[in-house]
Design a protein that fits this description.
The structure holds two protein chains of two kinds. By secondary structure, chain A is an all-alpha fold. Chain A has 15 helices and no strands. The two termini of chain B are 41 Å apart. The relative contact order of chain B is 0.15.
């Protein structure tokens, strides 16, 4: 398990470095940062001044090494737009994203795993067909559209929930439903498929022959094996919910990390964009690593491969 | 039946779950809830470049002068009078008995400190264009100051009235831009109550606002501004009654909202002018077809801008014929016009050596539908324009180095009612000048610095006529803007995109 863990860790660090280098380099393709910072009124002299002040006149690899060196110490530089440290901005925005991401993955797991299990036990029943319908809808419906429809229903027609903001728990109800619903199909279908496969296997038949209780067979023997791919997918989905909730955060005006990333890209606020991408990449990598390790623990055969 | 059941169930569930009744905006609690799309980088007037910064400048602070948007004249505000001593010197008598929101008394020290501090490049003011013409400000007495400009600058009163907030010198020296951004203090009709960076700003009526202010005493008790970038969410907020006022509503949505009983939709023209900008001077030696006058003229005749304005832009926008906004001092529409005439466009192209047209890149960063319509018109006369849609920074950089054949550009002149705010930027020999016409530069230099109004007007006219004759740019139309607000509100929109909430009231 130790060698397996170390291998996975080394791979994670390498991926993080590659992502950071790519994000740093790619941002420079969107135009001269000095012009973007200077804005409409900037003269040539202003732009030259900005270029020198911010170090844009240095070779890009020098700029990258300086940036990554500081980033490793938690210093992501100053936001060009807000003129405050990026770490300070991210600290203010991260809680909303974490609350939303966590509540959405819990929502998705709470509904999709039981639905997947029931659908597997009763294939082709009405509950299976309903689960399949919900799954197709979840995949086909754009999340911004679902968000706006919920907003019209629950904020405009029935003024029950606030359309946007983060002032209280009720502000998170609609975004949680929308974001969680988007993650449900994959988890539910994997649970269903995994359960069906496991339930048809020899060891389950043996367990039944031995007269074990069906609940024990289902949850102790079958679900533990069926859930392995679900763990991996859930980790990726959770990562997506943190990093990919840009649309949801924008629609519901949640000033989280996704919203910050989107707005910072529009404003060419390079230090903020670079820091947010790096943080998201690290979160993804940590989640994938955690899922790998958890799967290694659930199924020891994985550690050998 | 099922739908009803679902709704009843949902309502019961949420009530049981303890959802508090939602707070409603508006007249009932004397709070005007305002939404804006862009979060401000800083509330400090001199450290943001967003439109809302200009709006706050008028709400939280006062300037020495105030421009009456109905008559166009400069009225005394924190100054009681002003005069030009010579082309480079202005003297102001200041108002007595005015107090800042924190209780500090206003006098010459505040004006001298503010103007000298913001015009010092070391202090890194973001809106350099608004302050870099100031040489220095001197105190002549407790209520008298003298302002020196670097060169003759007749547009000074316009800049002073539009964007030059006066700060309390003791407070600003202590807290600096970061402190002013969190706890703004001015003399304006509204005072800052709470600033949540990037999220909201709350202001309350300044009960002690000086009676003689040309802005008038504010009526509405509180202003609460939130930043929501998504227009559809803003509309939902307005329709659910949690917001009272939004702007920049897209035309098609505005038309639908106008039919709603509780919402007023107002469309207003703005000073933002759209135009086609060409590589007329051949900055990079690329020998683009656009270096040729006849090609530029052909493009002017090829595009039916009236039809595009009528069908796509719509609203209160107006067709623009010269490189400025009509209400700016010195702007004239008495210039050569390029009427829609595709046959003439083809003839001009043939004369320029392109009987079968040519291919070119067409750059832009906003108003894509209008760009596509223009592309269609150009295609009809043989010019195959390929749209290059990029960020503003990327396009501007390319224009400046001379890599752009044609771009769809726009300019809001920072709401400055002086032609210099437009022509100076695009034809005064700056980095954005893709014409570099020595005669135009010379006329603009005279117009921008003369203290004789007639000399100014004459030289702007000559410059604008030459710009049109040479088709250095093809002006198209002005932007229009849709405002949507509760029927409970008395509000009037202005072309300078400065909503004057101190003049608004509840019905």
């Amino acid at each position: 398990m130790l060698i397996y863990t170390l291998k996975r860790l080394a791979l994670a660090v390498a991926v993080a470095l590659v992502v950071s280098a790519l994000s740093f380099g790619l941002l420079y393709l969107s135009g001269d940062p000095a012009t973007a910072i200077g804005g409409e009124a900037a003269t040539d002299a202003d732009i030259l001044f900005i270029r020198k002040t911010y170090g844009f006149d240095q070779p890009i690899y020098t700029q990258y090494l300086t940036w990554i060196g500081k980033a490793l110490r938690g210093d992501f530089g100053m936001s060009y737009y807000f003129r405050v440290p990026v770490s300070q901005i991210m600290a203010a925005r991260l809680p909303a994203t974490l609350i939303l991401g966590f509540s959405a993955i819990v929502f998705a797991l709470v509904f999709s795993i039981p639905l997947g299990v029931i659908a597997a036990i009763r294939p082709n029943s009405w509950i299976d067909r309903t689960a399949l319908f919900l799954s197709v809808m979840g995949q086909a419906m754009p999340s911004f559209w679902l968000g706006l429809m919920l907003m019209v229903l629950l904020s405009v027609w029935l003024p029950l929930l606030p359309p946007s903001g983060t002032e209280g728990w009720e502000y998170f109800v609609m975004p949680t439903i929308v974001l969680g619903y988007y993650a449900m199909p994959a988890i539910m279908r994997l649970t269903r498929a995994g359960m069906m496969e496991v339930l048809a296997s020899d060891y389950i038949r043996t367990a039944r022959a031995k007269g074990l209780l069906s609940g024990s067979i289902l949850f102790k023997h079958a679900l533990r094996n069926a859930v392995i791919p679900v763990v991996s997918v859930s980790a990726v989905q959770f990562g997506f919910m943190l990093g990919g909730s840009i649309v949801i955060e924008t629609v519901f005006a949640i000033q989280g990390m996704g919203y910050l990333a989107w707005e910072s890209i529009k404003r060419s606020d390079f230090p903020t964009v670079q820091a947010v991408i790096l943080v998201f990449a690290v979160i993804y990598i940590v989640l994938t690593l955690a899922a790998d390790l958890l799967n290694g623990w659930l199924d020891p055969r994985i550690r050998v491969t | 039946m099922r739908k009803k059941f679902f709704l009843v169930w949902m309502m019961a569930f949420l009530m049981l779950a303890g959802v508090a009744p939602l707070a409603y905006a508006g007249k009932a609690n004397d709070t005007l809830n305002i939404l804006h799309t862009v979060e401000l980088s800083s509330v400090d007037n001199y450290f943001n470049t967003d439109r809302w910064g200009v709006v706050l400048c008028h709400l939280l602070w006062d300037s020495l002068l105030y421009r009456d948007f109905k008559t166009g004249e400069y009225k005394p505000n924190l100054a009681t009078s002003y005069k030009f001593i010579d082309g480079k010197t202005l003297e102001f008598d200041l108002r007595q008995g005015v107090k800042f929101h924190n209780g500090d008394e206003f006098d010459a020290d505040d004006v001298v400190y503010t103007l000298n501090w913001v015009s010092d490049p070391k202090n890194g003011v973001k809106t350099q264009n608004n302050v870099n013409w100031i040489e220095k400000c001197e105190k002549l007495g407790k209520y008298k100051v003298r302002l020196k400009t670097k060169k003759n600058f007749p547009a000074a009163p316009e800049y002073i009235a539009a964007v030059m907030a006066i700060y309390p010198h003791k407070y600003y020296a202590k807290v600096g831009p970061d402190g002013m951004a969190i706890k703004p203090v001015g003399t304006g009709p509204y005072k800052g109550v709470e600033v949540v960076p990037g999220k909201s700003i709350t202001m309350a009526k300044n009960e002690n606002y000086f009676a003689d202010s040309p802005k008038g005493k504010p009526s509405i008790g509180k202003l609460h501004i939130r930043f929501i970038s998504e227009v559809n969410t803003q509309i939902a907020e307005l329709m659910s009654g949690r917001a009272d006022w939004i702007w920049r509503v897209p035309q098609d949505q505005a038309e639908k909202m106008a039919k709603m009983p509780k919402i007023t939709v107002e469309n207003s023209d703005t000073m933002r002018v759209h135009f086609l900008q060409f590589d007329a001077v051949n900055k990079k030696g690329r020998n683009s077809p656009l270096n040729k006058l006849k090609v530029r003229q052909a493009i002017g005749h090829a595009v039916d801008k009236a039809t595009i304005q009528k069908t796509l832009v719509r609203g209160a926008s107006q067709l623009i014929h010269s490189a400025c906004y009509p209400s700016q001092l010195g702007c004239t529409s008495d210039v050569v016009r390029y009427e829609y005439d595709p046959a003439k466009a083809k003839k001009l192209l043939a004369e320029a050596g392109y009987p079968n047209g040519f291919e070119m890149d067409f750059y832009g960063w906003r108003e894509r539908p209008e760009m596509e319509a223009i592309m269609g018109y150009l295609n009809a006369v043989g010019i195959k324009a390929k749209i290059q849609y990029m960020t503003y920074a990327a396009v501007r950089e390319k224009i400046r180095v001379g890599e752009v054949d044609m771009a769809m550009n726009n300019w809001g002149s920072f709401s400055i009612h002086d032609a210099s705010a437009f022509t100076g930027n695009f034809f005064g020999g700056t980095a954005d000048d893709n014409a570099r016409d020595p005669e135009v530069i010379k006329w603009l230099e005279i117009a921008d610095t003369s203290v004789d109004l007639e000399v100014r007007k004459k030289n702007y006219k000559m410059a604008l006529q030459r710009i049109a004759e040479q088709a250095y740019c093809i002006p198209l139309w002005s932007s229009n803007m849709n405002y949507a607000y509760t029927k409970d509100l008395n509000f009037t929109a202005q072309p300078d995109e400065i909503p004057r909430f101190f003049n608004a009231s509840w019905k």
